[in-house]
Amino acid sequence: MTELSSDGRMTLKETHDYWHQIQGQLFLTGTQCCDLVLWTPKDLQIVRIVKDMSWSPNISLMKQAHLLMVVTTVRKKVGMVEKTGITKKFSI
């Protein structure tokens, strides 16, 4: 999950899922950095994650994945309404 940089600071590996999640959140919120707090019973570390502009091509993939998730959820809910005959409004 983490590794030491050449100057001895703890960093989050760019191959870790958290790194990609944080990059996506930085791009979507327009934020430049994020502090990731790592806690164990023995220690606490705060790792600053800076927006990586080379990650931006992944935004379109994120949007596609999100749209697929929303469409799938809506289809399941509509299917449940059709099967049960329930016509009341529901929220997604």
TrEMBL record:
Name the UniProt record assigns to this protein: Uncharacterized protein
Record Gene3D superfamilies: 3.90.320.10
InterPro entries to which the protein is assigned, alphabetical: PDDEXK-like_dom_sf (IPR011604), Restrct_endonuc-II-like (IPR011335)
